[in-house]
Amino acid sequence: METRVETDPPRAAHTLVEMIVTVALLGLLVTFLAPALAGSRVGGRAAVCVQNTRRLNNAWTMYAQENHDQLVQNFQGGLAQGGNFPAALGPAWASGWLDWSTSADNTNRLLLVNERYAALARYLGPQASVFKCPADTDLSPLQKARGWTERARSYSLSAGLGRGNAESGQWDVIYRHATNVTDLVYPSPAETFVYVDENSDSINDPAFYSPARASLSDIPAARHNGAAAFSFADGHAELHQWTGSLRHPSGQGPDPDLHWLSLHTQRTSTLSY
Description:
Layout: H1 16-66, H2 110-113, H3 121-124, H4 141-145, E1 155-158, E2 193-197, E3 207-208, E4 227-232, E5 237-241, H5 256-263
Parallel strand pairs: 1-3
Antiparallel strand pairs: 1-2, 2-4, 4-5
């Protein structure tokens, strides 16, 4: 008896034209997906940055709660360097001077997580990553030659918040030097920024000065598609999108970015720039 074996009909081979069309479609798909994938990466790093400012803000709040509503120390200039703080006040919220040199302050994380140098260290623990925006990888050629991968800190505290030497820096008379929670009047705590993600060229000491009239001495970052992370005295944190000089340096007329910074800084009255 003859046995018959069923076989599948032969498959037609892909023609050259079909292969070209397939490759072209894949190329188009990658072209359309690439911006979305890139945006997802940026969005993820931005979310971490916002979370970092929120965690720093929580530590700032806990310090005040445990110290009769006094705001944590905040020094600028030479007093911001490790060990230079006034003995009567103790260390600032964090220490260290960042620049483009090979100074040890640029990478010394003990200035952020050791209670000897950082008053908020006890509230934040040993993890130094909270001080660093994941999108901040800027280094100078000298620092890269040393094999560095990043500097230690991306965030600064509003110069007018906390006991310290704010008036000896780029201070402007419209701002209030608040040393106690009850000093937060103009604006309200929900509108007063505490921590800011600062531009790599601008960051040095851990204090951030808001605009003096029409100029900036300290510059917030714009790492996240033209936005920077901020935390506020009521505990919330957010990304703020720049629309003026911080995004379009050639813009003319009133600067909405400088106005926003001034408006969200503690002031002696309702007047802002």
